[in-house]
Protein backbone atom coordinates (compact mmCIF):
# COMPACT_ATOMS: atom_id res chain seq x y z
CA UNK A 1 0.00 0.00 0.00
CA UNK A 2 1.47 3.32 -1.02
CA UNK A 3 1.06 6.78 0.41
CA UNK A 4 1.64 10.32 -0.83
CA UNK A 5 4.90 12.15 -1.30
CA UNK A 6 7.24 11.73 1.68
CA UNK A 7 9.67 14.51 0.79
CA UNK A 8 10.30 16.99 3.62
CA UNK A 9 13.17 19.01 5.07
CA UNK A 10 14.20 16.13 7.36
CA UNK A 11 14.10 13.63 4.49
CA UNK A 12 16.18 15.98 2.33
CA UNK A 13 18.81 16.24 5.08
CA UNK A 14 19.00 12.43 5.34
CA UNK A 15 19.38 12.03 1.56
CA UNK A 16 22.10 14.70 1.47
CA UNK A 17 23.97 13.02 4.33
CA UNK A 18 23.79 9.62 2.64
CA UNK A 19 25.05 11.08 -0.65
CA UNK A 20 27.92 12.94 1.07
CA UNK A 21 29.02 9.87 3.05
CA UNK A 22 28.88 7.65 -0.04
CA UNK A 23 30.95 9.90 -2.30
CA UNK A 24 33.43 10.69 0.50
CA UNK A 25 33.90 7.00 1.26
CA UNK A 26 34.30 5.78 -2.32
CA UNK A 27 36.14 8.66 -3.98
CA UNK A 28 38.22 9.90 -1.03
CA UNK A 29 38.73 7.28 1.70
CA UNK A 30 39.02 4.21 -0.54
CA UNK A 31 40.92 6.10 -3.21
CA UNK A 32 43.39 7.56 -0.71
CA UNK A 33 43.95 4.26 1.08
CA UNK A 34 44.02 1.66 -1.70
CA UNK A 35 43.64 3.54 -4.95
CA UNK A 36 40.16 3.29 -6.39
CA UNK A 37 41.16 1.24 -9.43
CA UNK A 38 43.30 -1.26 -7.54
CA UNK A 39 41.89 -4.70 -6.73
CA UNK A 40 41.28 -4.00 -3.01
CA UNK A 41 39.98 -0.54 -3.88
CA UNK A 42 37.43 -1.88 -6.35
CA UNK A 43 36.42 -4.68 -3.96
CA UNK A 44 35.76 -2.23 -1.11
CA UNK A 45 33.98 0.20 -3.46
CA UNK A 46 31.64 -2.54 -4.74
CA UNK A 47 30.85 -3.82 -1.25
CA UNK A 48 30.19 -0.34 0.12
CA UNK A 49 28.03 0.48 -2.89
CA UNK A 50 25.89 -2.61 -2.28
CA UNK A 51 25.40 -1.60 1.36
CA UNK A 52 24.57 1.97 0.32
CA UNK A 53 22.04 0.81 -2.28
CA UNK A 54 20.32 -1.44 0.28
CA UNK A 55 20.29 1.44 2.75
CA UNK A 56 18.77 4.04 0.42
CA UNK A 57 16.30 1.63 -1.18
CA UNK A 58 14.94 0.50 2.19
CA UNK A 59 14.80 4.12 3.32
CA UNK A 60 12.70 5.01 0.28
CA UNK A 61 10.43 1.99 0.84
CA UNK A 62 9.98 2.90 4.51
CA UNK A 63 8.94 6.42 3.49
CA UNK A 64 6.47 5.45 0.78
CA UNK A 65 5.01 2.28 2.29
CA UNK A 66 1.77 2.88 4.16
CA UNK A 67 2.35 1.72 7.76
CA UNK A 68 -1.12 0.19 7.96
CA UNK A 69 -4.54 1.76 7.70
CA UNK A 70 -7.56 0.60 9.68
CA UNK A 71 -10.31 -0.42 7.20
CA UNK A 72 -13.46 1.66 7.57
CA UNK A 73 -15.45 -1.57 7.57
CA UNK A 74 -13.52 -3.11 10.47
CA UNK A 75 -15.67 -4.24 13.40
CA UNK A 76 -14.27 -6.58 16.06
CA UNK A 77 -16.05 -9.95 16.08
CA UNK A 78 -16.36 -11.08 19.68
CA UNK A 79 -17.83 -14.39 18.51
CA UNK A 80 -14.79 -15.30 16.40
CA UNK A 81 -13.24 -18.47 17.89
CA UNK A 82 -9.90 -17.69 16.22
CA UNK A 83 -9.68 -14.29 17.91
CA UNK A 84 -10.14 -14.86 21.62
CA UNK A 85 -8.64 -11.59 22.88
CA UNK A 86 -10.48 -8.26 22.60
CA UNK A 87 -9.59 -4.85 24.01
CA UNK A 88 -12.49 -2.97 25.58
CA UNK A 89 -12.85 0.29 27.50
CA UNK A 90 -13.05 0.22 31.26
CA UNK A 91 -15.86 2.77 31.28
CA UNK A 92 -18.91 1.06 29.85
CA UNK A 93 -17.02 -1.97 28.50
CA UNK A 94 -17.32 -0.79 24.88
CA UNK A 95 -14.97 -1.91 22.15
CA UNK A 96 -12.24 0.64 21.45
CA UNK A 97 -13.35 3.29 18.97
CA UNK A 98 -11.51 6.31 17.52
CA UNK A 99 -13.78 9.34 17.47
CA UNK A 100 -11.45 11.24 15.13
CA UNK A 101 -11.24 8.54 12.45
CA UNK A 102 -14.72 7.10 13.12
CA UNK A 103 -13.41 3.53 13.10
CA UNK A 104 -13.06 0.73 15.62
CA UNK A 105 -9.49 0.30 16.81
CA UNK A 106 -7.89 -3.12 16.35
CA UNK A 107 -5.48 -4.31 19.04
CA UNK A 108 -2.22 -2.33 19.15
CA UNK A 109 -3.55 0.37 16.81
CA UNK A 110 -2.98 4.03 17.76
CA UNK A 111 -4.09 7.38 16.46
CA UNK A 112 -1.25 9.57 15.18
CA UNK A 113 -2.13 13.24 15.37
CA UNK A 114 0.64 14.16 12.92
CA UNK A 115 -0.65 11.83 10.20
CA UNK A 116 -4.20 12.44 11.48
CA UNK A 117 -5.18 8.78 11.21
CA UNK A 118 -5.10 5.50 13.08
CA UNK A 119 -2.07 3.30 12.39
CA UNK A 120 -1.96 -0.48 12.79
CA UNK A 121 0.59 -1.68 15.38
CA UNK A 122 2.04 1.80 15.58
CA UNK A 123 5.60 2.09 16.89
CA UNK A 124 6.26 5.81 16.50
CA UNK A 125 6.05 8.70 14.07
CA UNK A 126 9.46 9.30 12.49
CA UNK A 127 10.12 12.85 11.32
CA UNK A 128 13.23 11.63 9.45
CA UNK A 129 10.94 9.53 7.25
CA UNK A 130 7.95 11.87 7.28
CA UNK A 131 5.87 8.77 7.97
CA UNK A 132 4.69 6.58 10.80
CA UNK A 133 6.50 3.35 11.59
CA UNK A 134 3.80 0.72 11.92
CA UNK A 135 2.65 -2.75 11.02
CA UNK A 136 3.39 -2.73 7.28
CA UNK A 137 6.73 -0.89 7.24
CA UNK A 138 8.32 -1.78 10.59
CA UNK A 139 10.57 -4.50 9.15
CA UNK A 140 11.60 -2.21 6.28
CA UNK A 141 12.44 0.53 8.77
CA UNK A 142 14.41 -1.90 10.94
CA UNK A 143 16.61 -3.24 8.14
CA UNK A 144 17.17 0.31 6.88
CA UNK A 145 18.61 1.18 10.30
CA UNK A 146 20.68 -2.03 10.21
CA UNK A 147 22.21 -1.18 6.82
CA UNK A 148 22.76 2.42 7.93
CA UNK A 149 24.75 1.23 10.96
CA UNK A 150 26.85 -1.11 8.78
CA UNK A 151 27.51 1.69 6.28
CA UNK A 152 28.51 4.22 8.97
CA UNK A 153 30.89 1.84 10.76
CA UNK A 154 32.41 0.67 7.47
CA UNK A 155 32.91 4.27 6.34
CA UNK A 156 34.51 5.15 9.68
CA UNK A 157 36.98 2.27 9.35
CA UNK A 158 37.92 3.40 5.83
CA UNK A 159 38.25 7.00 7.03
CA UNK A 160 40.58 6.00 9.86
CA UNK A 161 42.59 3.70 7.61
CA UNK A 162 43.07 6.29 4.90
CA UNK A 163 44.43 8.74 7.49
CA UNK A 164 46.70 6.46 9.50
CA UNK A 165 48.07 4.10 6.83
CA UNK A 166 50.57 5.22 4.21
CA UNK A 167 49.30 4.84 0.68
CA UNK A 168 50.57 5.57 -2.82
CA UNK A 169 48.11 8.50 -2.94
CA UNK A 170 49.74 10.37 -0.05
CA UNK A 171 51.04 13.81 -0.94
CA UNK A 172 50.69 17.30 0.45
CA UNK A 173 48.35 18.52 -2.27
CA UNK A 174 45.78 15.74 -1.84
CA UNK A 175 46.01 15.95 1.94
CA UNK A 176 45.19 19.64 1.91
CA UNK A 177 42.37 19.39 -0.62
CA UNK A 178 40.61 16.61 1.26
CA UNK A 179 41.05 17.99 4.77
CA UNK A 180 37.59 19.57 4.83
CA UNK A 181 36.02 16.31 3.62
CA UNK A 182 37.70 14.37 6.43
CA UNK A 183 36.61 16.85 9.09
CA UNK A 184 32.98 17.01 7.94
CA UNK A 185 32.81 13.23 7.52
CA UNK A 186 34.18 12.65 11.01
CA UNK A 187 31.72 15.11 12.52
CA UNK A 188 28.86 13.26 10.79
CA UNK A 189 29.97 9.64 11.12
CA UNK A 190 31.06 9.46 14.77
CA UNK A 191 27.82 10.72 16.40
CA UNK A 192 25.70 9.06 13.72
CA UNK A 193 27.33 5.66 14.28
CA UNK A 194 26.80 5.93 18.04
CA UNK A 195 23.20 7.10 17.76
CA UNK A 196 22.17 4.57 15.12
CA UNK A 197 24.01 1.77 16.91
CA UNK A 198 22.09 2.47 20.10
CA UNK A 199 18.85 2.79 18.12
CA UNK A 200 19.42 -0.56 16.40
CA UNK A 201 20.12 -2.25 19.73
CA UNK A 202 16.97 -0.71 21.16
CA UNK A 203 14.81 -2.10 18.37
CA UNK A 204 16.46 -5.52 18.67
CA UNK A 205 15.34 -5.46 22.30
CA UNK A 206 11.80 -4.45 21.31
CA UNK A 207 11.61 -7.19 18.68
CA UNK A 208 12.71 -9.88 21.13
CA UNK A 209 10.02 -8.65 23.54
CA UNK A 210 7.40 -8.23 20.77
CA UNK A 211 6.75 -4.67 21.89
CA UNK A 212 6.39 -1.37 20.13
CA UNK A 213 8.03 1.77 21.48
CA UNK A 214 4.63 2.95 22.75
CA UNK A 215 3.94 -0.41 24.42
CA UNK A 216 7.33 -0.33 26.14
CA UNK A 217 6.74 3.14 27.57
CA UNK A 218 3.34 2.18 28.88
CA UNK A 219 4.53 -1.24 30.03
CA UNK A 220 6.97 0.46 32.38
CA UNK A 221 4.08 2.29 34.03
CA UNK A 222 2.02 -0.90 34.10
CA UNK A 223 4.86 -2.77 35.80
CA UNK A 224 5.05 -0.12 38.52
CA UNK A 225 1.31 -0.47 39.10
CA UNK A 226 1.70 -4.25 39.17
CA UNK A 227 4.38 -4.15 41.84
CA UNK A 228 2.30 -1.85 44.01
CA UNK A 229 -0.82 -3.98 43.63
CA UNK A 230 0.87 -7.35 44.01
CA UNK A 231 -0.02 -8.47 40.47
CA UNK A 232 2.06 -10.55 38.08
CA UNK A 233 2.92 -8.54 34.97
CA UNK A 234 3.26 -10.19 31.57
CA UNK A 235 3.27 -8.49 28.18
CA UNK A 236 0.31 -10.14 26.41
CA UNK A 237 1.98 -10.26 22.98
CA UNK A 238 5.25 -11.84 24.14
CA UNK A 239 5.40 -15.27 22.45
CA UNK A 240 9.02 -16.08 23.29
CA UNK A 241 12.21 -14.66 21.75
CA UNK A 242 12.29 -16.78 18.57
CA UNK A 243 8.56 -16.47 17.81
CA UNK A 244 8.78 -12.74 18.43
CA UNK A 245 11.72 -12.47 16.04
CA UNK A 246 10.10 -14.34 13.16
CA UNK A 247 6.85 -12.44 13.63
CA UNK A 248 8.75 -9.32 12.51
CA UNK A 249 11.50 -10.61 10.22
CA UNK A 250 9.65 -13.62 8.82
CA UNK A 251 10.09 -17.41 9.10
CA UNK A 252 12.68 -17.63 6.29
CA UNK A 253 16.12 -16.59 7.57
CA UNK A 254 17.32 -15.94 4.02
CA UNK A 255 14.69 -13.19 3.69
CA UNK A 256 15.67 -11.36 6.86
CA UNK A 257 18.08 -8.89 5.16
CA UNK A 258 15.48 -7.99 2.52
CA UNK A 259 12.28 -5.89 2.72
CA UNK A 260 9.86 -8.79 2.25
CA UNK A 261 6.63 -8.37 4.26
CA UNK A 262 4.40 -11.14 2.93
CA UNK A 263 4.42 -12.83 6.35
CA UNK A 264 2.99 -9.99 8.42
CA UNK A 265 -0.73 -10.61 7.98
CA UNK A 266 -3.51 -8.05 8.07
CA UNK A 267 -2.50 -6.28 11.29
CA UNK A 268 -6.07 -6.48 12.58
CA UNK A 269 -5.27 -9.19 15.12
CA UNK A 270 -2.12 -10.58 16.69
CA UNK A 271 -1.21 -13.78 18.46
CA UNK A 272 -1.00 -13.47 22.23
CA UNK A 273 0.45 -15.52 25.04
CA UNK A 274 -3.12 -16.58 25.86
CA UNK A 275 -3.82 -18.13 22.45
CA UNK A 276 -1.98 -21.35 23.29
CA UNK A 277 -3.69 -21.52 26.66
CA UNK A 278 -7.26 -20.88 25.53
CA UNK A 279 -7.09 -21.35 21.76
CA UNK A 280 -9.79 -23.58 20.35
CA UNK A 281 -12.04 -23.21 23.41
CA UNK A 282 -15.43 -21.57 23.11
CA UNK A 283 -14.70 -18.49 25.18
CA UNK A 284 -13.46 -14.96 24.72
CA UNK A 285 -10.97 -13.07 26.86
CA UNK A 286 -11.96 -9.45 27.30
CA UNK A 287 -9.00 -7.20 27.97
CA UNK A 288 -10.49 -4.40 30.01
CA UNK A 289 -9.01 -0.94 29.62
CA UNK A 290 -7.90 0.52 32.92
CA UNK A 291 -8.16 4.10 31.72
CA UNK A 292 -9.84 5.77 28.79
CA UNK A 293 -9.74 9.51 29.31
CA UNK A 294 -7.28 12.29 28.71
CA UNK A 295 -4.61 12.73 26.07
CA UNK A 296 -1.47 10.69 25.92
CA UNK A 297 1.88 12.24 26.75
CA UNK A 298 3.13 10.82 23.47
CA UNK A 299 2.69 13.06 20.43
CA UNK A 300 2.12 9.91 18.40
CA UNK A 301 -1.00 8.64 20.15
CA UNK A 302 -3.47 11.37 20.78
CA UNK A 303 -6.64 9.57 21.82
CA UNK A 304 -6.30 6.47 24.00
CA UNK A 305 -3.31 4.18 24.39
CA UNK A 306 -4.15 0.48 24.30
CA UNK A 307 -0.64 -0.52 25.33
CA UNK A 308 -0.96 0.42 28.98
CA UNK A 309 -4.62 -0.60 29.03
CA UNK A 310 -3.76 -4.02 27.68
CA UNK A 311 -0.93 -4.43 30.16
CA UNK A 312 -2.95 -3.29 33.16
CA UNK A 313 -5.95 -5.35 32.21
CA UNK A 314 -3.75 -8.40 31.74
CA UNK A 315 -2.63 -7.91 35.31
CA UNK A 316 -6.26 -8.04 36.39
CA UNK A 317 -6.77 -11.10 34.22
CA UNK A 318 -3.90 -13.01 35.80
CA UNK A 319 -5.05 -11.95 39.26
CA UNK A 320 -8.61 -13.15 38.76
CA UNK A 321 -9.18 -14.97 35.49
CA UNK A 322 -12.90 -15.50 36.06
CA UNK A 323 -13.50 -11.75 35.89
CA UNK A 324 -12.40 -11.68 32.25
CA UNK A 325 -13.49 -15.06 30.88
CA UNK A 326 -16.97 -15.39 29.46
CA UNK A 327 -18.24 -18.76 28.21
CA UNK A 328 -20.36 -18.71 25.03
Automatic annotation (TrEMBL):
InterPro entries from the UniProt entry: Palmitoyltrfase_DHHC (IPR001594), PFA4/ZDH16/20/ERF2-like (IPR039859)
MF terms (GO), sorted A to Z: protein-cysteine S-palmitoyltransferase activity
Assigned EC number: 2.3.1.225
Subcellular localization(s) per the UniProt record: Endomembrane system
GO cellular component terms given for this protein: endomembrane system
Keywords, alphabetical: Acyltransferase, Membrane, Transferase, Transmembrane, Transmembrane helix
Catalytic activity reported: L-cysteinyl-[protein] + hexadecanoyl-CoA = S-hexadecanoyl-L-cysteinyl-[protein] + CoA
Membrane topology summary: Multi-pass membrane protein
Palmitoyltransferase DHHC domain boundaries: 94-218
Name of a matching Pfam family: DHHC
Domain commentary: The DHHC domain is required for palmitoyltransferase activity.
Family: Belongs to the DHHC palmitoyltransferase family.
Name of the protein in question: S-acyltransferase
Amino acid sequence: MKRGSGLSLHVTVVIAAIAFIYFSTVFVFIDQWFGLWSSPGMLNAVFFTVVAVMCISNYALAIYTDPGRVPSSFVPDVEDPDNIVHEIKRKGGDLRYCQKCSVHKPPRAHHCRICNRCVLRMDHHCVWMNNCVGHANYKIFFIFVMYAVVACIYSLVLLAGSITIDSPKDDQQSEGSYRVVYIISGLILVPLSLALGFFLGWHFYLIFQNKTTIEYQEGVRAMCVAEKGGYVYSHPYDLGAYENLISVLGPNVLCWPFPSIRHIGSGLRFRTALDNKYGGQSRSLCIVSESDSGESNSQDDEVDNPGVKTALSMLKFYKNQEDCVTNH
